[in-house]
Design brief:
By secondary structure, this protein is of the alpha/beta class. The protein has helices at 18-35, 51-58, 112-122, 181-185, and strands at 11-16, 41-47, 65-75, 85-90, 100-108, 128-136, 149-153, 159-160, 176-179. The strands form 2 sheets. Strands 4-3-2-5-6-7 form a 6-stranded mixed β-sheet, sandwiched between helices. Strands 1-9-8 form a 3-stranded antiparallel β-sheet. The structure holds guanosine-5'-monophosphate.
């Protein structure tokens, strides 16, 4: 599949505008700053989809913080469905034992990836661990996981933009939109 030169032409509907995202990320940052006041939080983000969210959120948190990055990929599945079998491509670069960890995720769909990651990170003995997800697609959840912070609940549609890709493209769109089926059926 080749994206159109005008990426926006492949988007059927804008679900969240740049302004809506920025406003919500600022709110999340305020809430996290209040909840973790007096503590040093470690934000762990999962490449590549969470990159813009992480970059914006960390600058809205008014506390001393550390960041770390992981990268995972799903085995199998299809281009628009995750299989839940997760492979760690890049692990944490520093220990998190005794730390207050906030796992920063782009989107929770079936919850299988997050379920795996949480179990993996809990095994590293953090003092606490919570999840901050920009997008939540509850309609497709297979594993129930408590989400500490959620940016937006969205309907069951395949979305791209603000870090989210299709075939590695569209991550640099500043909004979140629903891809035209023609863009992934071709
Ligand atoms: P889960 O394991 O919760 O089903 O899927 C999580 C991962 O699947 C996300 O981190 C993301 O990489 C991918 N994913 C799930 N839904 C979408 C979507 O609507 N759009 C895009 N681009 N990726 C998605």
């Amino acid at each position: 599949m080749k994206a159109s030169q005008d990426m926006k032409a492949d988007v059927a509907e804008v679900l969240l505008t740049e302004e809506q995202i920025a406003a919500r990320v600022a709110e999340l940052g305020r809430q996290i700053s209040a909840d973790y006041a007096g503590h040093e939080v470690t934000l762990v983000s999962v490449l590549k989809g969470s990159l813009p969210f992480m970059a914006d959120l960390m600058r809205r948190i008014d506390l001393p913080l550390r960041i770390d990055l992981m990268e995972v990929s799903s085995y199998g599945g299809t281009a628009t469905e995750s299989s839940g079998l997760v492979r760690i491509l890049k692990d944490l670069s520093a220990p998190i034992d005794g730390r207050d960890v906030l796992l920063v995720e782009d989107i929770i769909d079936t919850g299988l990836t997050l379920n795996y990651l949480l179990r993996y990170l809990k095994g590293k003995n953090p003092r606490s661990i919570k999840v901050c997800a920009l997008l939540d697609k509850p309609a497709r959840r297979l594993v129930e996981i408590p989400l500490g912070y959620v940016g937006f609940e969205i309907p069951d549609a395949f979305v791209v933009g603000y870090g989210l890709d299709f075939g590695e493209v569209y991550r640099n769109l500043r909004f979140v939109g629903v891809l035209r089926p023609a863009a992934y059926e071709s």
